[in-house]
Amino acid sequence: MNIPNLQRLRDHIAALPPERIQMPTLFGALDPENEIDLTDIVVESGLGPALDSHDCGTCACIAGWALYLFHPSHTLGGGSLTSGAAASLGLNNDQATELFTPPNFEDPGRYTQADVIRTLDHLIATGEVKWD
Hints:
The chain is mainly alpha-helical.
């Protein structure tokens, strides 16, 4: 595991407004009426420019924020997004699956920012992904 990168990701997520961590969303806009398609921007410019260029309240899941921090020029055409996030955090396949896709992660609001921070703290301390 890459503890420095995990800690940096944890600290970044902790500093965000709580609504900007959305486990069902790799990357997107919180304002559904804004109708900004971040996918096109990511394909052309990468994750960093997509999430930095709008004040619409962009949000992402753990994998999305990891890509933003460690691979900001990554585009959708460049292989698996979650494998890039896992590699930047030094996670094996099981750890990545457990961290990025916890039970019922598709349910909006199921996992809060506090849940994510607690899980990352536990992972950093023990090497185990544990969702409460």
